[in-house]
């Protein structure tokens, strides 16, 4: 099975509501999208093509290469179909693999049982052909096989990513309630920040938004911080393809980019964590860190983007302390951030009403399972200017 050079159906998954930003990234890399849906896109490419995608995408989660679509009404039929695949040409007999799944079938009470049937089909086939069986377990840092099974429709994939792409590898110390890196990158893309004007991030927490802004401005891709992917553990992998793509990542870094990125937090501990994370990401020198109340954050005069990701508590009921904070954020943007586009990311619509400004856009996101909005505020200075809206 020559999968590394054979184009086939590939699904790139992402968290819900990140699909528009994933689509933009995929197109910018020069790939044609066959189909887009709320949690991803479909392409027709080879596994060697997925190497480029794995190294470059900021907003994706997994990149899945389809091996076979088939009908399976029950675990026995699933096993029989999977046993026909030449697994001995994909997974080393002395190797290691894990199985993940997305299962909705009435004959399966737990996805773990479906995973076991996939594992059995693979190891039995390889043992029959090679006389030895590979090891398997829960670790997804080697070869990963993914099963999609809904009703009687099943599809088996090679997960070329393994560990999720949504985490970008620099956040060794996460901090309190951090924003997932893929979500942070998506909010910055949604803000239409140009990468040159100032980017201000009060209440920065562990620094994810400021770091992602610096990575975007300098064209540093996530693959620079990662040396292990699932595609490396399938038969046919050519490391020269990986290192060639990685060389491209290094060559395309914009070392001349020097945007003003300012990250502030009232917690000295949070700023120390942010600095360590930024150092790991290779962008510490691009970010000005400040320990202060958000209202004392330095805001350059030339205009740009200011983005808050404040606490938003529980959806039901608001807290008087947070109500005051949200009102202060609105006052601060109105008084100190003229000429900027202001953004507040929140999952609490009641608190959002306390901001006291009228949002020009309400961009839908999820943070985990919580329904959230990125609220945009045009903080005009002088006459109102029309801005191009990329996403609704």
TrEMBL record:
Stored SUPFAM superfamilies: S-adenosyl-L-methionine-dependent methyltransferases
Pfam families hit by this protein: RlmL_1st, THUMP, UPF0020
Top-level lineage group: Bacteria
Gene Ontology terms, MF aspect: RNA binding; rRNA (guanine-N2-)-methyltransferase activity; rRNA (guanine-N7-)-methyltransferase activity
Ranges where the THUMP domain occurs: 49-160
Keywords, in A-Z order: Methyltransferase, RNA-binding, Transferase
InterPro entries: RlmKL-like_Mtase, RlmL_1st, SAM-dependent_MTases_sf, THUMP_dom
PANTHER family: RIBOSOMAL RNA LARGE SUBUNIT METHYLTRANSFERASE K/L, RIBOSOMAL RNA LARGE SUBUNIT METHYLTRANSFERASE K_L
UniProt protein name: Class I SAM-dependent RNA methyltransferase
Phylogenetic classification of the source organism: Bacteria, Pseudomonadati, Bacteroidota, Sphingobacteriia, Sphingobacteriales
């Amino acid at each position: 099975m020559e999968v590394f050079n054979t184009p086939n159906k590939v699904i790139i998954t992402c968290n819900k509501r990140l699909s528009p930003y994933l689509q933009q990234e995929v197109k910018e890399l020069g790939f044609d999208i066959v189909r887009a849906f709320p949690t991803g896109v479909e392409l027709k490419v080879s596994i060697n093509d997925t190497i480029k995608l794995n190294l470059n995408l900021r907003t994706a989660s997994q990149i899945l290469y389809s091996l076979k679509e088939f009908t399976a009404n029950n675990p026995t039929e699933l096993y029989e179909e999977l046993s026909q695949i030449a697994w001995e040409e994909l997974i080393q007999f002395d190797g290691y693999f894990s199985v993940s799944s997305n299962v909705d079938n009435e004959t399966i009470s737990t996805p773990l049982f479906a995973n076991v049937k996939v594992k059995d089909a693979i190891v039995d086939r390889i043992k029959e052909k090679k006389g030895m069986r590979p090891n398997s377990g829960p670790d997804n840092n080697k070869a990963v096989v993914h099963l999609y099974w809904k009703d009687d429709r099943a599809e088996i994939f090679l997960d070329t990513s393994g560990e999720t792409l949504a985490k970008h590898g620099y956040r060794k110390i996460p901090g309190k309630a951090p924003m997932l890196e893929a979500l942070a990158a998506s909010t910055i893309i949604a803000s239409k920040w140009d990468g040159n004007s100032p980017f201000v991030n009060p209440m920065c927490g562990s620094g994810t938004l400021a770091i992602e802004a610096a990575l975007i401005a300098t064209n540093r891709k996530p693959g620079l911080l990662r040396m292990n992917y699932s595609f490396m553990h399938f038969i046919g992998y050519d490391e020269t393809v990986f290192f060639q793509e990685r060389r491209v990542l290094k060559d395309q870094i914009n070392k001349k980019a020097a945007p003003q990125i300012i990250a502030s937090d009232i917690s000295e501990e949070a700023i120390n964590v942010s600095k360590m994370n930024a150092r790991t990401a290779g962008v510490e020198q691009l970010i000005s860190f400040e320990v202060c109340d958000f209202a004392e954050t330095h805001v350059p005069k030339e205009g740009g983007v200011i983005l808050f990701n404040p606490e938003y508590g529980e959806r039901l009921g608001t807290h008087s302390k947070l109500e005051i904070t949200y009102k202060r954020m609105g006052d601060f943007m109105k008084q100190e951030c003229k000429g900027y586009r202001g953004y507040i990311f929140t999952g609490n619509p009641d608190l959002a009403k306390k901001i006291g400004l009228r949002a020009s856009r309400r961009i839908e996101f999820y943070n985990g399972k919580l329904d959230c909005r990125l609220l945009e505020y045009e903080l005009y200075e002088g006459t109102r200017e029309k801005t191009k809206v990329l996403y609704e």
